[in-house]
Structures are given as structure tokens and as C-alpha cells.
Amino acid sequence: MITFDQIDFVGTDLHRPECVLCTSDQVLHVADWRGGVTLIFPDGRQHSVLAAGTFKPKPNGIAILPDGGWLLAHLGEDDGGVYRLDPDGTLTPVLRDVGGLPLPPTNYVHVDGDGRIWVTVSTRRKPRALGYRADCDDGFVVLIDGLDARIVADGLGYTNECLIHPETGQLYVNETFARRLTRFDLGKKGSSTNKTVVAEFGHGTYPDGLTFDADGGIWITSIVSNRVIRVGRDGQQQIILQDAAPDALERVETAYHAGEMGRPHLAKTFGSKLKNISSAAFGGDDLKTVYLGCLLGREIATFRSDIPGLRPYHWDWLASSRIENFKVPT
Predict the structure, then answer these.
(1) Are strands 218-222 and 207-212 parallel, antiparallel or unpaired?
(2) Which helix (H) or strand (E) is 211 found in, with range?
(3) Which helix (H) or strand (E) holds 307?
(4) What is the pLDDT of residues 225-267, one digit of tens each?
(5) CB 239: neighbour CB atoms within 10 A?
């Protein structure tokens, strides 16, 4: 188990760095709540690419594009959508409605090796915090491909991060308030079949982010409890890291079971060092450095793993190299 003295931090003055991604040039791509992405370079330099114009999306999840730039999942108060952000700050709508209905606040976006875009909406409930319930079952996954944009998985318990496994081609989805990790097989046109619960989580675990390691494991980040859990090939769970005051965590658990959990329960830090971790990514030259996005911190926590990560699809999509005349602000 990782101890607190094994944790370091990178980055400064970040703005709700909920999602973090790594590329082979060892650049971190971090969601920036001001309306874009902040890059953290190996030497510590930072550069923010924010949307030009008056509309500033609230990026929860982000995805790197193979031809440069990023996709942003807009988690607005009442609206959602997916937007493309180019390195020069140009913002272009990609998806704002599906099935003729506007997208609710949108949680995550992922681009796979075939260029397909996978989008999650956690809940249709208004306000969104009413989805912080064990009975929430209206989350869904949208697929954007060469055909159209359509819902390919529905009835999920607060859909959070989703990823296509680079080796098996299966879709993995975290259902945060149903407390489970779910897997789907995919048909030729992206249709989801054979829904399988890979792992169910218990007291204090609210699965948010996920990533894969090279040994067949799945790493899960839990908000509130600041846990990192590795789910092995056999389904066994190992807590890699946790940081939560037991009394504070118990108060959240009580609210959850009473159907009273709300946004104030996510707006506090329950750990001594971690600030409500929400995502994980493997990076470094050997893919053994783990980086943790978070909801409430201004830095990215990092530690070393004995197991390397599995190369993500975007590993060699070097969006940062397309930023011309990069200079560090002084």
C-alpha cells in the first residue's frame, strides 16, 4: 500500500484538475475549469489553452485528439455537450444533442483507436445532485462514429468515466453511485451486449476514474474516500492508496444510505493530503508513474507503481507539439 511519504505533487495553481492524461513525451494534459486544458511539461513548465470567445465550457473529462487538440465534456449547471478545443483556442461544438434532445451535463469523453468518440452522461435528473443515489439508473453512454450519434448503453447508475480496453476492445464504465464497474462487449456498429458487472464496491467507495495496467488489472479512483483500488483479472480488489478521515467518511455514508447525499458532500476534502481524487493515468518513460486528477486540489498527486500501465490509445497523439511558439508566462 502506498504511504503518504511516497506521494509527490506536480503542477501549481491548477483549476479543478478533474481529469489527467499522459502522453509519451511525458506531458500531462489536465482539465482546466476555466474553459480548456493545462499542459504540464516534464521540466515543470505549464501552459494553458483556454477557449477563445465568451462561452467557456466547464471541462470535466477531456480527450486528446490524434490530429491535435482536445475534446472537452462540458459539465454545465443545466447543460452539457462535447466541444473540440484547438491549440489556438478555437472552440467548436461536436455534440450538443442526441435523439433530438439536448445533452444534460456531460461527464466524460474518450477517443478510441478507431477514432470513435464515447461520451457519458451521468444522469437525466435535475438538479444533477439528485443522481447521487443508490437508485439512480438513468445514466447513459453515447457513441459518435461515422454513422451518427446514438445512445449505445442506458440505464446506468450514474455513469462516470468510460474506456475501451486497447487489447480486448471491450467497453468499461464506472457507475459511481451504483458502486460498480461494468463491462460491455461491442458489436460491429458499437452496439453494447453482454453487460457484465466486473466489480462491486462497498463502504466508502464511489468509483469515478479508471485506467488499465499491463498485467490485466483495472485501477479505480474513488471520490470522497480518496481511494485507489486495483481490480485484478480474477476480480479481487486491492486498495493501493486511501486518505479519508473515518468520521467524515461515515457521515457521507449515512447521507448516501438515507438518500440525502448532495453536492456539499463532494465539496469538502476528507483526507489529510489528497483533495478528492477523481482520475488516474500512467505516465513517465516506463509507464510506472501514476498521476491522480482531483476535484478540489490545485496540484496533481503522483506516486510510483511496481506495475506499468497499459499504453492508452492517445499515448503518441502529441497535441502539445502542435502549440506554436510555446512560452511560459512570466
Answers:
(1) antiparallel
(2) strand 207-212
(3) none
(4) 999 999 999 999 999 999 999 999 999 999 999 999 999 999 9
(5) 14
